[in-house]
Amino acid sequence: MSAPDLRRAYLVLAVVGLAGFQTAMALSIVFVAYPDIQDAFPGSSAVTLSWVLNIFSIVGAATNVLGGAVSERIGRKRAILLGVGGFTAASVLAALAPAPVWIIVARALMALAASLILPVSAAVILTEFPDSHRGVAMGLWSGAGSIAGAAGPSLGGWLVEQGGWQWSFWINVPLGVLALGAGAVVLRESRDEERRPWPDAVGAVLLMFGVGAVVLGLVQTREWGWADARTLCVIGLGALLLTLMARRSQRHPRPIVRPDLLRIPSYRAGNVMMLFLAISFFGFQFTSIQFLTGPWGYDIATAGLLSTPMFLFIAVTGPLSGRFVDRVGPQLLAPSALVWSLSLLLFAFGLDGERDLGRWLLFVLVAGVGSGLVWGAGFAVVMRSLPVTDFSSGASVTQTLQRVGNALGVAVMVTVVSEDALEGDTDGYPAAFALLSVLGLVATVAARRTARVTPVSTEPGP
Questions:
Q1: For residues 125-150, b (16+ Cβ closer than 10 Å) or e, as one string?
Q2: Which residues of 56-73 are buried (b: 16+ CB within 10 A; e: fewer)?
Q3: pLDDT digits (tens, 9 = 90+) for 159-172
Q4: pLDDT in tens, 267-300
Q5: CA dist 96 to 89, 101, 203, Å?
Q6: C-alpha distances in Å from residue 237, one per residue of 60, 212, 400
Q7: C-alpha span between 287 and 280 (Å, rounded)
Q8: Model's pTM, two decimal places?
Q9: How many beta carbons lie within 10 A of that of residue 211, not counting itself?
Q10: Both ends of the chain: CA-CA distance in Å?
């Protein structure tokens, strides 16, 4: 077998990273556009508008595996190009939306398009790299997503300030055209030659409505209360649907979440870690923007700039931690997750109603380093747990759980951060940041377990 062409491998990594740039930026740019969307539609409740944030993650969680199956059948290159084109078109629909419901519909379509891109992206990248370089490849891919995440608050904040929330969607048009051109030239067509059964569509529906019901119950507690029968019934319905999905997964030949992969100890523990990290991380993204534009009174553009350094630190540290996994192993996971968790306590108890940019930037630095190290190393460890033939399926499950974590993190924070806090009262924020820290500690415990059960590769590095 000929040696892999690393120059081509890194070119493919760059193109696939560009193709996914829109989808990664969509997760962060909407946080800075959200306050302007609130102002544009004053008659809509915070609960209704929260679906602008959540629908992308909920639909994406349910369709990632289905999108992966479609991509493997029609060809990975074709799927990526179709996904980029669909994402761009849906972004135009969102930018032209006359009411929040149309933004929600467009965001759902964007999630469907992203489900054609993300599940096969890891497989396209990893098949180009030898095992000794896969950790750094995943770290660089994570870093590219972090750069997109950084562009969301900074570029998105500036665009929203200049032209309104619509420009958080219009920006996807030139990016999509560029990604389509580069992908058409560089990527090679490939597909799974083994004709596996279609994934469980019923299971996907159960997953989507199960997560959606739990999220609905959480965000409605602001109006209904925790002890209200409606709250308990909706959350209970969500839990029932998720239980049915899990039981179907035990019997279906191609379940949405494959039980055989979850029986791999390092893969199972790593995904638990990534789930709770996602809940904590995306909950923080929502809460920090609300804090900056609420109690501290910054405009959207400034709030976006102040959120950007964290993503830049993630972009720098992600590849480094992936390389560390290649050379040494997963020992960095738990300390990194602990740094992230402790950094949230700095936000909880180190900030008040008075602006203090020095403290803010220091806290963001600590949080960015901790989260960047654990994101880069975490995804590398999870993927290294799998045989090459399961890269696409394994990445789909991991990304599904991250989307679930995104939706749950936002839903929990919509519940915890009160209406008074959104209008400038700081009282609710220490509890919100402290709760996010507790969720980070759960991720830390899972990270420690992951490090204990992960086998160390014996293949020598370069």
A1: bbbbbebebbbbbbbbbbbbbbbbbb
A2: bbbbbbbbbbbbbbbbbe
A3: 888 888 999 999 99
A4: 888 889 999 999 999 899 889 988 988 888 888 8
A5: 11, 12, 33
A6: 20, 10, 20
A7: 10
A8: 0.79
A9: 26
A10: 18
Count other Cβ atoms within 10 Å, centred on residue 341.
Answer: 25
Task: Annotate the chain with three-state secondary structure.
Answer: CCCCCHHHHHHHHHHHHHHCHHHHHHHHHHHHHHHHHHHHCCCCCHHHHHHHHHHHHHHHHHHHHHHHHHHHHHCHHHHHHHHHHHHHHHHHHHHCCCCHHHHHHHHHHHHHHHHHHHHHHHHHHHCCCCHHHHHHHHHHHHHHHHHHHHHHHHHHHHHHHHHCCCHHHHCHHHHHHHHHHHHHHHCCCCCCCCCCCCCCHHHHHHHHHHHHHHHHHHHHHHHHCCCCHHHHHHHHHHHHHHHHHHHHHHHCCCCCCCHHHHCCHHHHHHHHHHHHHHHHHHHHHHHHHHHHHCCCCCCHHHHHHHHHHHHHHHHHHHHHHHHHHHHCCHHHHHHHHHHHHHHHHHHHHHCCCCCCHHHHHHHHHHHHHHHHHHHHHHHHHHHHCCCHHHHHHHHHHHHHHHHHHHHHHHHHHHHHCCHHHHCCCCCCHHHHHHHHHHHHHHHHHHHHHHHHHCCCCCCCCC
Residue 176: pLDDT above 50?
A: yes
pLDDT-derived band at 435 (thresholds 50, 70, 90) equals: very high
Q: Cβ-count burial of 85 within 10 angstroms (0-12 exposed, 13-18 middle, 19+ buried)?
A: middle
Q: Are 279 and 344 in contact (CB under 8 A)?
A: no
